[in-house]
Amino acid sequence: MDRDGWHTGPVAPPPDPGATPRPVPPAPSAGERRTFLVAGGVLFGVLVALIALVALLSGDAGDARPSSTTAPCPPGDTRCQATQRQAERPGIIPRPGEGQAPDEPGDRGGWEQLAVLAVLILALVLIMSLIVRNARRARTLRRRSLPP
Question: According to the 3-state scheme, what is the secondary structure of the chain?
Answer without folding.
Answer: CCCCCCCCCCCCCCCCCCCCCCCCCCCCCHHHHHHHHHHHHHHHHHHHHHHHHHHHHHCCCCCCCCCCCCCCCCCCCHHHHHHHHHHHCCCCCCCCCCCCCCCCCCCCCCHHHHHHHHHHHHHHHHHHHHHHHHHHHHHHHHHHHCCC
